[in-house]
Amino acid sequence: MHLRIGYEIVYECPQPVPMILMTHVHYSRASDLLAPDHLITSPSLPSEPYRDSFGNWCVRLVAPAGRTTISADAVLNVSRQPEPEHLDARQLPVEQLPADTLLYLIGSRYCETDRLSEFAWQQFANGPTGWQRVQAICDYVHDHITFGYQYARPTKSAWDVHNERAGVCRDFAHLAVTLCRALNIPARYCTGYLSDIDIPPPHAPMDFHAWFEAYLDGAWHTFDPRNNDRRVGRVLIARGRDAADVPIANTFGPNTLVSFRVWTHENAGPVPVGAP
After folding, report:
1. Ranges of residues in the chain whose predicted pLDDT is under 70
2. Pair 107, 234 in one domain
3. Strands 146-147 and 166-167, bridge-based pairing
4. Is 163 found in the same domain as 138?
5. Are residues 62 and 188 in the same domain?
6. N- to C-terminal Cα distance for the chain?
7. In sequence order, which ranges of the chain are alpha helices (DSSP H)?
8. Which of 51, 66, 152, 239 is deepest in the core (most CB within 10 A)?
9. Letter string b/e over residues 122-132, b meaning 16 or more CB atoms within 10 A of that residue's CB
10. 72 lies in a domain?
């Protein structure tokens, strides 16, 4: 199946503002692209691509004073089947974990494992391990946290989400990541596109989405506590310890976000060029 993805972000800046953008499809999906997600700016601006310490693609540029539009439009191959389940995937003892997963066991900016460790063990220690334990965490977060854009704020951490019981998709992911790590399951935060294919209407306005991956039985597996189901059309942009590592945009000066659009849908026509 061909999936069309893209975005258009418009900034108004009173002065030149350096920016770092993290909007390219993850390198692990590069071979699936039929039309690449070239970053286009209006006005045309020089930019410098690079890869961060997690391997994510980033772009540096300086937005001039005035209005700047940043966009991309791409098509890629995706499976028509929902994401697989691996119900028998085991939780590995810490001493058997690969060294490169250990970073995802410790606390981070938005994931305070020290503050939630006692709760995690009280809530989940007597239940199953492995895939079933991670799913139990997702069930808990999905059932106990109320979703709403009015609950979003940039400083909200997993501890805040746990106590306030409300947030957006990144907050659901932060809380689940923290509970996994507290139970010695490596977990990393993910951001990207998620389609509404096979989801009955009404559909919410499209946005970038956050989920997480847990390391079980020698592999990373996708979990989504916000939706809590296996989906069609999930496209990774970036991975990190939490949202602080993978912001869609970092701006280093005064600016106003004028408009923001994201699209993710099945592509039935010819491969597009440029934003719609």
Report:
1. 269-276
2. yes
3. parallel
4. yes
5. no
6. 20
7. 113-124, 130-144, 158-164, 169-182
8. 239
9. ebbeeeebbbe
10. yes
